[in-house]
Amino acid sequence: MGRKEIFLVLSVATVLHLIFFYRNLSPRYVLYSGKDSVRLHYQTREYIYEQIKSGRVPFWTERMLMGFPIYADMERGILNPINLLSIYFFGPVNSYKILHFLFYISGSLGLYLLLRKDKQVVIPYIAANTIYFFNFFVLYHQQHFNMVLAIYSLPLLVLLLKKYIQGSPKKVTYSILFIFLFSTLFYFGSFQVLLMTVVVLVWYLLSEDLFKNGQNVFYKLFFILCAITVLIAPGFWSQVGLYNSSSRFGKEVYQTGAVLAPTLFSTIYPYIFGDYRDYSGTSINEDYLMHEVYVYIGVSVFSSLFDWISSLG
User: pTM for the whole thing?
Assistant: First the structure.
C-alpha cells in the first residue's frame, strides 16, 4: 500500500467525517446527542481536568453523595491512560473531539485494508465506510462516548486479529497492537460493545476459515486471551464491587456505575424477559430501559443461525 493510496483513503475518510461532524472544528460546539453527554461524560471530564491540572489523579470524588469511587465506574474512563492524557493536554471538550476523530480514522483505515486485496477499492470503501460509521445507530449513540470509540475500532481489531492468525511476518507486532487496543477499549468502559465485538471476531474467524491451522491457532488465541485477562482484571474487579453497592437510577445517584447486569445479561440472552412483544413501551422492567436493550435483539440472529446449522447436522 503506497503513500498515495494511504493519502487518498485518509482524505476520503476525513471528508466523510467532516460532512457529519464539521461543527467539531468550532470551539463553540461540543459533541452532543443526549443526556449522557452532559450528565455523565462531560461532567466527569471537566472534574478530572480540574483535578489533574491541580496535580492529583482522583480515586474518589466528593461531589457525588457523601463520596464516590469515581475510578471504579468504568463508563467514565478514568482508568484509561489515553483518556487521562488527552484530557490533561487538550482539556475536557477538545480531548474527546480528538479521540473521536483518531479512533474513527484508524477504524476507517482498518476497514479499507480489510476490503483491499490486490487492488484499490476506493468506491466500495466509500459506501462501506458511510454505512458502517454513519448509520443511524452510531449517530444516535454519539452520547455514549465509550460505546462509539469501541464501534469505530471494530474493523481495525478484525484486521489485526486476521494478520496475527495468518502468521504475518509482523505477527508479534499485530498481537501486541490487538491486545493494546482491546484493553484500551475495555478501560473506556463499554462492556456491551466489547461483548458484541467478541461475537464478531469469532464469527469472522469461522467465516474466513482461519481455524484451519488447528492447534496452532488455538495456542495463539489462548496467548491473546491470557494477556488481555491480565490487563483488564483490575478494572473488571472494581466494576463488580461497585455494581454490588450502587444504584443505576435516581436523581441523586445518576448512573453510579451499576452497568454490569443490563449490559452483560442482555447481550448474552436478549429475550431474557420473554419475546419481541416484551420490547414495547418505555421499559421491560425497572432495571432495563427499552433503549438500552433493543440493540441486543440482533444478537439473537446468531443464535438462530447456529440452531439452523445444528439442525442440518
Answer: 0.78
